Amino acid sequence: MASVAATHAFAQSASTTAPAGGVYNLIVGTYTGGKSEGLYVYRFDTQTGEMQPVSVAKTVNPSFLVVSKDNRFVYAVNELPGDNGPASLRGDVSAFGFDAASGQLTFLNKVSAQGNDPCYLSLSPDGRYLFVANYSVAADPGGSFAVLPVQQDGRLGESVLTVHHEGGGPVKGRQDNAHVHSTVFSPDGRYLFTQDLGTDKLWTYRYTPDGSRGLVSPAEWRYTDVKSGSGPRHLIFGNDGRHAYLTSELAATVTVFAYHDGHMKLEQVEKLAEPGFKGTQGAAALHLSPDGKFLYVSNRGDANDISIFAVDGDSGKLKRVGRQSSLGKSPREFAIDPTGQWLIVGNQNSDTAYVFRRDQQTGLLEPNPKRVDIGSPVDFKFVAQ
């Protein structure tokens, strides 16, 4: 682990407000270079599922974004260099001010992600730091995560800590070196989990902003192993805080863990594709319904669908209840609106998004969704006005 000395930034105040008339802002992250120019803001009506365009902020490859707790700031990766770019080119993270009332984004500043291909962002529970996962197609510098201080005015400071992973896995061309794909805090904010597709590990760190152990330090057990060659990607915690759910991109599975005080215990592994499926796959995002009763998981490749699972309220285990085509190619990310009535999924390689109505009793997605044309849509975040 390589690092530089940590410095401190001050936390922002956080508050939430209810949307006016059931209308939210919806911010969409994209890949640019084709039909997209950057970040798009829509008004999303939770009564009808309709989306109305409001504004666009030009920025390069904002493929993942996160919103501050007070909704005043938006942070987006600039995913560079990509598959064909020079390894010497580092990616960035851009900060924007956000006026929720008008739906306008204002560029604040941009700092280096200290690695290649930044693909995931998370704010520390105290709002003082932004953590960025660098997937890194290139072996040099390899998969890493960086810690960026958040200033009171929403701007980002230069990285105060960079952690590189070492190792690889058995899948040639995909696991030749480390690939950090997400940085996720435990429900109590004491631990940081970094899912590494290249090393088949969920690395575990302690977060101690008081400086008692340094800002971030490896847990004594260091990591949780997953099946060799599975390629862990994204992790979320259940509403009860006692279970965690992991997508493994290469194996196209979702895994259930029992969780306690930084430790993960494997409970269940479910395949995403239907029995007998032939073709390529690529597990991507996973999200729970607001009530925590259903889990949705996207699968790309030739599958291009979303698996729907019911969540057992006691054991946290999953039972499949359905599967829904994304109606396009490469459903990388999706989101469920805060009311739980709608699920929107982006088809990255089809320049489309579809808004499905959710049956909140069965978890199923109703047919005849609303289509929205967006260039290479990837990420979606709902923000109250």
Automatic annotation (TrEMBL):
<dbReference type="InterPro" id="IPR015943">
    <property type="entry name" value="WD40/YVTN_repeat-like_dom_sf"/>
</dbReference>
<keyword id="KW-0378">Hydrolase</keyword>
<dbReference type="GO" id="GO:0005829">
    <property type="term" value="C:cytosol"/>
</dbReference>
<dbReference type="InterPro" id="IPR019405">
    <property type="entry name" value="Lactonase_7-beta_prop"/>
</dbReference>
<dbReference type="GO" id="GO:0017057">
    <property type="term" value="F:6-phosphogluconolactonase activity"/>
</dbReference>
<dbReference type="GO" id="GO:0006006">
    <property type="term" value="P:glucose metabolic process"/>
</dbReference>
<keyword id="KW-0313">Glucose metabolism</keyword>
<dbReference type="InterPro" id="IPR011048">
    <property type="entry name" value="Haem_d1_sf"/>
</dbReference>
<protein>
    <submittedName>
        <fullName>6-phosphogluconolactonase</fullName>
        <ecNumber>3.1.1.31</ecNumber>
    </submittedName>
</protein>
<keyword id="KW-0119">Carbohydrate metabolism</keyword>
<dbReference type="InterPro" id="IPR050282">
    <property type="entry name" value="Cycloisomerase_2"/>
</dbReference>
<dbReference type="Pfam" id="PF10282">
    <property type="entry name" value="Lactonase"/>
</dbReference>
<keyword id="KW-0413">Isomerase</keyword>
<dbReference type="GO" id="GO:0016853">
    <property type="term" value="F:isomerase activity"/>
</dbReference>
<comment type="similarity">
    <text>Belongs to the cycloisomerase 2 family.</text>
</comment>
